[in-house]
Specification:
The chain has 418 residues and is mostly helical. 76% of the residues lie in helices and 0% in strands. The chain has a single domain, classed as Up-down Bundle (Growth Hormone, Chain: A). The chain is globular, with a radius of gyration of 20 Å. The longest helix has 33 residues.
Length: 418
């Protein structure tokens, strides 16, 4: 990990910066693992609270995800500006603590109302990965950022490699046990960060003051109009995030309803998908970016995601679904290329604002995505004669097709690399 840090590090201005990327990589892995532990179980916990009614569970999942996304949309600019003003480390610790608290709510909540409170807290502190990306931009050279963002994507997949499988197995013992494990892992990660993680943003590179006018979603979006092509790239980011909402929105309930998958099978499937994603991000992203550039990698990832969603929407069996996973994993090319293109277009003291604006875009996607995919799936469940259980997957494919159209039409001027 130290070798990786030296390869990607920007040189730094004090001892310890050499290992900074390694620290943040491990932090991202453990955070993703804790989230992965929770993913296969939460929809089934909702089903438990709704007497086993799949359609009603989907609708409650929509409500939770939408409200959490709205909180993330509102909090993203604040967290981004705080990270630019006070540094990445304190914001990361706040976000990890909020995530751990949410897991505790899920572990012990006696009712849906308590679960809802936990989701609001999680949404308000959902800046773990956006802050980590700002950290990466601090400690890597501009030419290595896309590669580094690819490693961060690999970190997410490494966490998801084990997390869903652990969650599925623990969930078969007790439905609340995975949340306890996720809370312990996340809070241990926060302690790890408090004791070991160095700050990446030196005082002289920080924003001189916290500007309240920019600490709101509308104000933060002004940054996205500050450089040529940045607004279009943000649109691609939003559409991709919108399509990805199909996974937390319906994946567990969809595969359980259509293919009869248990939490254990769901967890193992997610683990296999993560392993494929790690392979792409570790061995394919770098060569593709060197050969075709960041834009080429982004477009290739969009095409792969579009094709995969179509396949998943029409796959008649679990085996057919699995056959589409090698194509789906190539979608991991999208974000490293996109984030590299975006980070080149802002200055060093605006990287946190950029990631905060991206978090707001992701939060906005979380407001609309769960309704788009959740209600379409609930309709398909309530109208089995229509034979359209894959409707939400096909809807995600349509969103990615719009994303591809925008990417092909986008004009990118020369980036001001700083």
């Amino acid at each position: 990990m130290a070798t990786l840090g030296r390869a990607l590090n920007s040189g730094g201005d004090r001892p310890g910066r050499q290992a900074a990327f390694g620290f943040i990589f491990i932090s991202a892995v453990t955070s993703a693992m804790s989230i992965g532990i929770m993913v296969p179980i939460l929809p089934n916990l909702l089903k438990q609270f709704t007497s086993g009614d799949t359609a009603v569970a989907v609708e409650w999942n929509v409500v939770f995800a939408t409200c959490g996304g709205l909180m993330s949309f509102l909090a993203g600019p604040v967290l981004g500006l705080l990270a630019d003003r006070w540094g990445r480390r304190p914001v990361l610790l706040i976000c990890l603590s909020g995530l751990g608290l949410d897991f505790l709510f899920m572990a012990f909540a006696p009712s849906l109302a308590w679960l809802f409170v936990g989701r609001l807290i999680s949404g308000a502190t959902s800046g773990v990965f956006s802050t980590a990306n700002a950290y990466v931009a601090d400690v890597t050279t501009p030419e290595n950022r896309a590669k580094a963002f690819g490693w961060m994507g690999a970190a997410f997949n490494v966490g998801f490699l084990a997390g869903p499988a652990i969650g599925g197995l623990l969930g078969q013992v007790n439905l609340r046990l995975p949340f306890t494990a996720a809370a312990a892992l996340t809070l241990a990660n926060a302690v790890y960060g408090a004791l070991i993680l160095p700050e990446s943003l030196s005082p002289e590179r920080r924003t001189p003051r916290f500007v309240m006018a920019r600490a709101n979603p509308i104000g933060s979006l002004k940054l996205l109009r500050s450089q040529e092509g940045l607004a279009g790239l943000a649109g691609i980011y939003f559409l991709n995030q919108l399509a990805q909402m199909v996974w937390p929105g319906v994946f567990v309930l969809y595969t359980g309803y259509r293919y009869g998958w248990t939490p254990g099978v769901v967890g193992m499937t997610m683990m296999a998908g993560s392993l494929m994603g790690i392979s792409v991000q570790s061995f394919i992203v770098g060569p593709v970016i060197r050969r075709y550039g960041e834009r080429g990698a982004m477009i290739a990832g969009i095409c792969a995601a579009t094709a995969a969603f179509i396949w998943y929407g029409v796959a008649p069996s679990g085996l057919a679904y699995w056959a589409g996973m090698p194509v789906s994993c190539l979608a991991a090319l999208l974000l490293p290329g996109l984030q590299g293109l975006m980070s080149h277009r802002v200055s060093s003291d605006e990287q946190g604002q950029l990631q905060g604006a991206n978090q707001s875009m992701a939060g906005l996607a979380s407001v609309f995505g769960p309704s788009l995919f959740g209600f379409s799936f609930a309709w398909a469940v309530r109208n089995p004669s229509a034979h359209m259980p894959g409707l939400p997957m096909l809807g995600a494919a349509l969103v990615m097709a719009l994303c591809l159209l925008l990417a092909l039409r986008l004009r990118l001027g020369k980036a001001g690399v700083v």
